[in-house]
Amino acid sequence: MKILFLSPSGAPEFKLNLFRRFTEIGELVGYLSSMEGIEVEYFDAVLEGATNFEIIGKFCEKVDLVIFYTRVSDAPEVVYLAGVLKSISPKTEVFVYGDATFFIPQFFVRSEIEYVHLSGDPESAVDGVLKLHRKEVLQYPGLMAFGKPPKSSGLNVSADNWGWPALSQLPIDAYLKYYTEKKKDKPFETSFTVSRGCGTNCTYCPVPKKEGVKDRRRSIDQVISWIERTKHFAGMVKLHTPDIAGDPGWMSDFSEAIASMKSAPQWRSIAILNNLTTDLIDSIKGSGCWMIGFGLETMSLNRKLGPKGEQSHLIRCLKAMLDNKIIPEAFLMIGYPGQKDKDIRYMISLLRDYNVVIRPTGFTPFYRLRNLSVTELESLDLRRWDKRTFYDEKSARHISKDLFYRAILRDWDYVLSSAHQVEDQEIPTEREVLWMPAN
Ligand code: SF4
C-alpha cells in the first residue's frame, strides 16, 4: 500500500517549526513505515515552497491514501486539494488529521474526504484508517468515516507503541541546510515526544482533546536509547510534551540518566508553571538542560497573576532557572480575554527584567468555530486563523491594534515606548525590590 503524507503550503503558520515535523508528522510517518507492506512518502510542501502545480503533480503518482496534516488555516486548501486529487485519482482515499479536525471537524464532512481524526492517539487513528481502507471494519473509535461519526471516542495506545520520527523519510538534509543558514552557530536540534496528555484542559488548546487528560510517558530507557541513536547529528534535542514537570520523578530521573551519557546533546522542554518547583529545577542542574519553556499566556498588572499561576511563583521559578543557567522561555497570548495594553507592557517589562525569552502569539479562540455551520465557516477567511498572527476583535477589544501587531512581532521597544508607558502608580511596589539576575 502506498501512502503520501502531505502538509500543504497554502497558509503556513511557521515555515520551519522543526519540532512539529519531527513529532506530529515525523512520528506518524515513522509508525506507518514500521508496518509491513506500507510504503510512505512525506512531501514537506512548506519547506519546499511548493506550488499547487507541484503538489498536484504528486497526485499523478499512484497512491492508495493521501494523509493531510492540517491546521485550521490550512483547512480550505486541504479541501481544495482533496477535490483535485479525486478528479485525478478517484480511488485514492483521503485522511485528514492535525489541529483542524479537533476544532472544525464539520468542515471536513465532504465526499472527497473519507476519514477524519476526531480523538485518540494518531497511531490508533491510522490503524483504524488502514482497517477501514481494507474493509475489515465499518467503523472505528475516534474516526469519522465516510461522513459518519464513530460510536466511541478514540483509543490511547501504550507509550511503547508510539511512533519515532521517521529519520529516513523526513528531508533531514534540507532541514539541516535551512537550520544552519538560519541559526548559524547553533547545533542542529531534533525533537521527539516524551509524554502526552494534559489535565489543565485550557479551552483554547487541542492537547486534551487529542491526547486526553492523563499524563502518559515513554520510559526513560527508550528515551535515552533514542537520544543515543541520534546524537551523532543532533547536538540539541527538544523533548516534546505538554508538561515535563507533570511527573516530577520522571523529570529528575531523566536528568540523571542524560547527565551520565557520554557526549549527550543539550536538551530543552516545556513545563506547566504551576507544576514547576524550585527543588525540581535544582534537580536538573548539570544535566545539559539549556531552556525550559512555559505557557504564561498573560498577566494582570493589578491582580499580579495570570491563568497559569501567581507572579510570586513565577519569579521564584525564574530565579531558580537563572541560578541554574537555564534560559526561561515564556509563551504569551496577545489579545487574551480581558488583557489590557498596560498588562502587556507590564508583563513584557517584568519578563525582560529576568532575561526571559518571550514567544508571543495571538490569542486563538478556535473552539468558537466548533459550533458554526460549514456555510458559516466558509464565509470566514480561515486562512487568517493561524495561531501566530490571529487577531480576535472580541477578545482583544481592550488592546490597541498597533500594540497587538508590534507585540507579536516582538518589537519590544515600541511596546514599551514612552507613548505607552504604564503610569507609575500602577506598577506594584514589590517589583522594585525583586531579585534581579546577575548582569
Ligand atoms: S496547560 Fe498547555 S498543554 Fe495543557 S491544556 Fe493548557 S495550553 Fe494545553
From TrEMBL:
> Which cofactors must be present for this protein to function?
[4Fe-4S] cluster
Check the record and name the Pfam families matching this protein: Radical_SAM
What InterPro entries is this protein classified in?
Aldolase_TIM (IPR013785), BchE-like (IPR051198), Elp3/MiaA/NifB-like_rSAM (IPR006638), rSAM (IPR007197), rSAM_sf (IPR058240)
Domain Radical SAM core per the UniProt entry, residue ranges: 184-397
Q: Which SMART domains match?
A: Elp3 (SM00729)
Q: Which UniProt keywords apply?
A: Iron, Iron-sulfur, Metal-binding, S-adenosyl-L-methionine
CDD domains, sorted = Radical_SAM (cd01335)
Keyword Iron set for record: yes
Q: Kindly give the PANTHER family that the UniProt entry links to this protein.
A: ANAEROBIC MAGNESIUM-PROTOPORPHYRIN IX MONOMETHYL ESTER CYCLASE-RELATED, BLL1977 PROTEIN
Q: What is this protein called?
A: Radical SAM protein
